[in-house]
Amino acid sequence: MSNPAERPVGRRTPLTNATHLQQPTSMPIHKYRGYDAVDIADRTWPERRITKAPRWLSTDLRDGNQALIDPMSPARKREMFDLLVRMGYKEIEVGFPSSGQTDFDFVRSIIEDGAIPEDVTISVLTQAREELIERTVESLKGAHRATVHLYNATAPVWRDVVFRGSREQVRQIAVDGTRLVMEYADKLLDDRTTFGYQYSPEIFTDTELDFALEVCESVMDVWQPEDGREIILNLPATVERSTPSTHADRFEWMSRNLSRREFVCLSVHPHNDRGTAVAAAELALMAGADRIEGCLFGQGERTGNVDLVTLGMNLFSQGVDPQIDFSDIDELRRTAEYCTQMDVHARHPYAGDLVYTAFSGSHQDAIKKGFESMETRAKGAGVTVDDIEWAVPYLPIDPKDVGRSYEAVIRVNSQSGKGGVAYVLKNEHKLDLPRRMQIEFSKIIQAKTDAEGGEVTPKAIWDVFQDEYLPNPDNPWGRIQVRTGQTTTDKDGIDTLTVEATVDGGATELTGTGNGPISAFFDALQSVGIDVRLLDYQEHTMSEGASAVAASYIECAIDGKVLWGIGIDANTTRASLKAVVSAVNRASRNEV
Prior knowledge:
Elements: E1 55-58, H1 60-66, H2 74-87, E2 91-95, H3 101-112, E3 121-127, H4 130-138, E4 145-153, H5 156-162, H6 167-188, E5 194-202, H7 209-223, E6 231-237, H8 244-257, E7 264-270, H9 277-286, E8 291-294, H10 308-317, H11 329-340, H12 361-381, H13 418-429, H14 435-452, H15 458-469, E9 480-489, E10 495-503, E11 506-514, H16 517-526, E12 532-541, E13 550-558, E14 561-569, H17 572-591
Parallel strand pairs: 1-8, 2-3, 3-4, 4-5, 5-6, 6-7, 7-8
Antiparallel strand pairs: 9-10, 10-11, 12-13, 13-14
Helix pairs in contact: 2-11, 4-6, 6-7, 8-9, 12-13, 13-14, 16-17
């Protein structure tokens, strides 16, 4: 069937794999090589799950601070330290005291001011040079609990290009540095300080695994970890170089091959150069890591350290207590922004201004239905919504759990549909619009956004709704304004309605009969040439108690037009009459 004219009706030339082939670029890919796989065929980490919080170390005051265009002042550093303590971090890297007087003085200030709770361990970083180690240990005098963190670069490029040293020379730097830390701790610190030690083979991601293991074993030979004397071995992704899965393989290999593993705290320190630091940290935990080092909101060198907020909230969203308090996430964000003078992005996970906000119409509709389902399930179980499992589409957590309100969950723009508009009216004004009325009003809002562009605020939605559906003495549009009404019922159940009204600007008494107030009102309207037929009627209370207010919704066919009206009143009969007036006035308004 090669002749196009012979193809069956409705058939077109199909897309094929070849249709979608990407084309080579002129980018210099020859300059780069792929990462090395790890020979670990029986890896176990893919089968594991994270069921408890790791140990956390914040390095906001060291790694985060050194990456700022304008490093924190002492006041801002103290504000950050106090925030980390309030949140619940028990291990905090507070500086690089041998790098300058500012960091040294800050470490001294929090010790001398008694700002460090007794259950919090501070950590300080040093290179493996004697004069720097001495200055570093000196900064810790009088601290309750303190760790010295020593590092040296072990990766081939650093060995060959930066330091021009052999593997043995690099290993010896780590050994000598460890010995010096121990000597100065014995010399400068007294029994008031519970002292710990951390070692990092820097750029672990680029270091040969066998050499990283050799250096760590040599360091442990000096420190002699044992029961009650742990060593922290930090394996930093100083530069993120591989997929998170390969990073996990490297951690499982190290965790399996380290001797004295029961006395080792294996720490992971990812940077975000490839954009996968969070995944790398989580998979490293599954592969054997005990602790995560990072910064709030991913602050840090280049693309940043791993984000401790996202990691903690990821655990929370899976029903695992992160043991860090994120219940007022906006306050955390404001404080971090003040301290770092850098903004948190509007799309930042869990904390950004827009992360709990839906503009898309289908998303809004699903969220609205999700909230309604939660309320129904909770009511059926006789509990509150907070007592049942969270299940709202597009919202992985309840925004209230991090101090957010529901006001900004749904916002309206040109991409929004009926669900978003309906949610705003229900959430802020207790109006639960019938579905067809949602569709009707969403078209009005859509026309506004198409004409004006941008977002429509909840206030603007309410202003449009009032103008469209709720004529009142302050907004007196339409043919009819009802002043009073009185209903009587005869022995046969027939209602007679008498209404004092203004019709087309003139005072008029309208009278009609029917099998209810609405039917009687329709009959009364016939006398002024208005033909109304009821299509649908719904009502609900907007509040409870003696002062309850009702909302009535009426769908009417009026002179060939189908329109909705709404009435709000403490009396349900008056509310229904107001709804009829709303629909009638809208019909006459649309004629203009």
